[in-house]
Amino acid sequence: QKEVEQNSGPLSVPEGAIASLNCTYSDRGSQSFFWYRQYSGKSPELIMFIYSNGDKEDGRFTAQLNKASQYVSLLIRDSQPSDSATYLCAVSNTGGFKTIFGAGTRLFVKA
Amino acid sequence: DTAVSQTPKYLVTQMGNDKSIKCEQNLGHDTMYWYKQDSKKFLKIMFSYNNKELIINETVPNRFSPKSPDKAHLNLHINSLELGDSAVYFCASSQDPLAGGRDTQYFGPGTRLTVL
């Protein structure tokens, strides 16, 4: 079983729609959860982090965490073509020195 | 003003050679990391260093030797390069991996290594 699983996609949504990205993780001791965005040929950059169960909103982005189900999601509202990228889910265990990344979901937003 | 920098950006070399990649961060962070991203874009942690001390070594072959001369630098030396070492290597840093809200990692631009 992979430690952090994501649907590789591609996920294609029309401009203005909501994009929903999902991630599951296997280590119940995980404490910190991140979503990074990576454009082709570039380095990952942080979109959101979340530590507690529930929702966390930042502009057009909402992260959702359900520790009982070991599930993290990212919603992107009013998707724009500039949101087209690979989205990486990342999970850190207690101690934080080891962050496990999922394989990423490619998102295409069609104009 | 680059927060995390790496050199070189591209590295093309022959099998069997030895090469180094340098990383520097000016964020004042205590923790630095090396990641390998393969052709399938899977980002995998290799090493974590905290205050110049090795914390995590993810079963990386001992041909890979990280060195941290100070908290702001973490270099990666690779001996006897193999074809399978071809990948993009990312350096990253974080302020405090033990503190929620300060464990976000900031990545360098990456070094694309091609072994021929």
Indicate the low-confidence ranges of chain B by residue numbers.
none
Arithmetic mean pLDDT of chain A: 92
| Structural class by helix and strand composition of chain A | mainly beta
Low-pLDDT ranges of chain A: none
**N-to-C series of helices and strands of chain A:** EEEEEEEEEEE
- Strand tally of chain A is 11
Number of helices of chain A: 0
For the terminal residues of chain A, how far apart are their CA atoms? 37 Å
The value of Rg of chain B in angstroms is 14 Å
Average residue-wise pLDDT of chain B: 91
| Biggest sheet record of chain A | 6 strands, mixed
Order of helices and strands of chain B: EEEEEEEEEEE
The outline of chain B comes out as globular
Largest interface chains and counts: A-B, 23 and 30 residues
Distance between the termini of chain B: 34 Å
Described by the principal axes of the CA atoms, the overall outline of chain A is globular
Strand content of chain B: over 45%
**Measured on Cα atoms, how large is the radius of gyration of chain A?**
13 Å
In total, the number of strands of chain B is: 11
Question: What is the element layout, followed by pairings?
Answer:
The complex is a heterodimer of chains A (111) and B (116).
Chain A (H helix, E strand, L loop, with lengths): L3 E3 L4 E4 L4 E7 L6 E7 L6 E6 L3 E5 L2 E6 L4 E6 L8 E8 L6 E3 L3 E6 L1
Parallel strand pairs in A: 2-11
Antiparallel strand pairs in A: 1-3, 3-8, 4-5, 4-9, 6-7, 7-8, 9-10, 9-11
Chain B lengths: L3 E4 L2 E4 L5 E7 L5 E7 L5 E8 L2 E5 L6 E7 L2 E6 L8 E8 L11 E2 L3 E5 L1
Can you characterise this structure?
By secondary structure, chain A is mostly beta strands. Helices cover 0% and strands 55% of the residues of chain A. Chain B is mainly β. In chain B, the strands form two sheets. In chain B, strands 2, 4, 5, 6, 9, 10 and 11 form a seven-stranded mixed β-sheet that branches. The model of chain B has no long low-confidence stretch (mean pLDDT 91). At the A-B interface, strand 4, strand 5, strand 9 and strand 10 of A face strand 4, strand 5 and strand 10 of B.
